[in-house]
Amino acid sequence: MNAPQAAIALDARPRVAGHFRLQWEEVQKAWVLLYPEGMVKLNGSAGEIMQRLDGEKTVQALIDELESSFETSGLTQDVLDFLAIAQRQGWVKP
Question: What's the CATH code of the domain at 85?
């Protein structure tokens, strides 16, 4: 049985896991994660988060950037929740 992974910290610098490739699919009008066995189509919010994961930007900087880009606030928990799911799926490395 696998132990649950810890939540990604605000000072973490997550990146897309090495065996995935993130790209825009014009036909689907969506960001997708490609991997040898297939593809994951991301919804709009997931795509906005994933395209900003460069391994250098902290989670807090990512949240600040999203809140600024979309002229909103209060995205911290939503971003952390998505990153936790993405980490469990193996899409993201903290």
Answer: 1.10.10.1150
